[in-house]
Write a structure and sequence with these properties.
Elements: H1 7-20, H2 33-45, H3 50-68, H4 72-79, H5 84-112, H6 118-136, H7 161-186, H8 193-205, E1 212-213, E2 219-225, H9 239-251, E3 258-260, E4 266-269, H10 274-286, E5 290-298, E6 304-312, E7 326-328, H11 342-345, E8 369-371, E9 374-380, H12 387-392, E10 400-405, H13 415-430, E11 434-438, E12 444-446, E13 452-455, E14 462-468, E15 471-472, H14 476-480, H15 483-500
Helix pairs in contact: 1-2, 1-3, 2-7, 3-5, 4-5, 5-6, 6-7, 6-15, 7-13
Length: 501
């Protein structure tokens, strides 16, 4: 490829191919781009100096995250309260930070595995990709968005989700891309059998059911999508109109086993409205139903928590603030729910003083919520993207994964659709259906394989009625988690390093 001899051409291809990876994810769901984009990067890195390769990785990352997380600008523009130039500066800062991880991948690849070899492309590159992905999902509480495996929820590779999780699917993508890259560079066409075998195996195991659905124990649910304007939600004058809107929609659905309101659906502190909550608890109990809602709570020490509470048939004898079962969000959204280095940042701009940006963390593992005889493992909004946390909160009694969210911060962007795709992956990994209730979409129900079975349109006031079927049994991923995969990662790096020497 003579035209690749020009470094500027390589940089241009890097940013375009990085941006093209976004097409693999929702709402486009053109999953082959998850292979095409890293293939372009691997070819671009071939025979480059460490310095040039490092910048190629950074530029590829700029395209990848510049297109893939562009939806963040909606919240900055609409709620940040800053001039456009300052908002643009923040977006560039976020994208540049995220691009450091593919930059690190490219640096490690060329610095320590510069020669073209089979062990490099089949062992070192997949392992380093997973390591840098893991770092991105951990540093500063993590941002595990756009892991390549999420894009395969509708592809044959989804068959590996219940076995190895989303990281395992990512590894299979990179192993396949590594085999194709080596074949193209070294004309070793027999290696194309590797992605072919992985694809055939995926088709073979995809029909297999790791868990047993129990349709005779189906639960009737009603998910209330209030479609409340985020800019008005926390105005004191809007508190009771908002609550009454949810109540009016709830009264029409008392025949459901579970009635679920979104994250922070009640725009008030739990301590401020105990009479209303007692009345709602009594009404739900009389109708043999359970209402689950998001609400902000305050501890006796003055700490605020983003909570979920259940009212009605929930294993208690009436609402009692001190004894009420609650789930408190553990993984908080940086800047939205807590501000790192807040003493420095809060005085700088209004975006660092958004409403409800001073939450405290709940425990990493918390009891399931009991509701009308079902047990639900909660995950609030952003938490659903943390597969290990969701997995570790599922018990032998868990029937469903429950996630409440409010993606109104991100308007009509692609962000909420990517968020839903990640929720689907949690169902596939654990073999547990996901119930997802949101303020303005995507409100949906999935089955235990991550397929959306019921959904209502975004940006409408509506109620999603449906049945959710619980499962028994467990998936390999639910049982083992990711440690076998990362054990293989370390083994792969050790072998590749030995071969290099």
């Amino acid at each position: 490829m003579p035209f690749l001899n020009h470094y500027l051409i390589r940089l241009l291809i890097a940013i375009i191919s990085g941006a093209g990876a976004t097409l693999a994810f929702a709402p486009y769901s053109l999953w082959p781009f998850a292979f095409i984009s890293p293939l372009c990067l691997f070819l671009l890195l071939h025979q480059q100096t460490t310095k040039r390769a490092t910048w190629l990785g950074f530029v590829w990352g700029l395209g990848y995250f510049g297109a893939g997380v562009s939806w963040v600008h909606v919240s900055i523009d609409n709620f940040g309260g800053m001039p456009m130039a300052a908002g643009l500066f923040l977006m560039i800062g976020l994208i540049s930070y995220l691009a450091l991880y593919p930059m690190l991948f490219s640096f490690l690849t060329t610095r320590f595995f510069s020669h073209s070899s089979l062990s490099k492309y089949l062992l070192a590159l997949p392992a380093l990709w997973l390591v840098t992905d893991w770092l991105r999902g951990w540093v500063f509480t993590g941002f595990p968005w756009l892991w390549l495996g999420y894009s395969q929820i509708d592809s044959p590779l989804s068959a590996w989700g219940p076995i190895f999780g989303v990281e395992g699917i990512t590894a299979i993508i990179i192993i396949s891309v590594g085999a194709v890259t080596y074949s193209l560079l070294e004309k070793k066409w027999g290696l194309l059998l590797i992605p072919a075998i992985l694809g055939i195996t995926s088709f073979t195991i995809k029909p297999f059911d790791w868990v047993n659905p129990q349709p005779e124990k189906a639960t009737k649910v009603a998910l209330i999508q209030g479609n409340i304007n985020q800019a008005l939600k926390w105005l004191p004058s809007e508190r009771w109109p908002t609550i009454m809107k949810y109540m009016d929609l709830t009264r029409k659905n008392w025949d459901a086993d579970l009635i679920i309101w979104p994250e922070a659906a009640i725009p008030a502190l739990e301590l401020e409205i105990p009479s209303f909550l007692r009345n709602l608890d009594s009404a739900a109990t009389m109708n043999n139903s359970t209402v689950i809602t998001g609400i902000v709570g305050e501890s006796p020490t003055g700490n605020f928590y983003n909570n979920i509470i259940s009212l009605g048939v929930n294993g208690t004898n009436g609402y009692d603030y001190k004894q009420q079962p609650r789930y408190s969000k553990h993984h908080l959204l940086p800047f939205g729910e807590f501000v790192p280095f807040e003493n420095i940042l809060r005085p700088i701009a209004p975006i660092f003083n958004l409403p409800m940006s001073s939450f405290s963390r709940g425990d990493y593992i918390q009891p399931n919520m009991e509701a009308s005889g079902s047990h639900l493992a909660p995950a609030l909004c952003y938490e659903i993207v943390y597969g290990e946390q969701v997995r570790e909160n599922i018990t032998a009694q868990t029937d469903y994964i429950l996630t409440l969210s409010n993606d109104a911060w991100f308007g009509t962007s692609i962000g909420p659709l990517q968020h839903m795709e990640m929720a689907q992956m949690r169902a596939l990994e654990t073999g547990k259906p996901v119930i997802r209730s949101t303020n303005n979409g995507v409100t949906a129900i999935t089955d235990h394989k991550g397929n959306i079975t019921e959904q209502i349109p975004q940006f409408t006031t509506a109620v999603l009625r449906g049945e959710v079927i619980p499962t028994t049994g467990t998936t390999p991923y639910r049982y083992w988690g990711t440690w076998p995969l990362y054990l293989l990662v370390m083994l792969s790096l050790a072998i590749a390093w030995r071969k290099r020497r």
